[in-house]
């Protein structure tokens, strides 16, 4: 459990360091939209990295594509177009 906590703390420290360098510049230049996008992407990256540090299974985009096309594939198998 302790290595997971250390990994997550490391991820949070790196995210904080990135924010310390980037946010004041964006705020001073008035880049509000970019700041929102930066914040959302940074939070998404921290979340995914934390999940990987905890060894959670994270679905890939290919998993979602397979779920969408599975019924169509089953239909084609059923009517004999593919094996």
UniProtKB/TrEMBL annotation:
Q: Which UniProt keywords apply?
A: Membrane, Transmembrane, Transmembrane helix
**Which residue windows are transmembrane per the record?**
6-23, 35-58
* Top-level division of the source organism's lineage: Bacteria
Protein name (database record): Uncharacterized protein
Organism listed in the record:
Paenibacillus farraposensis
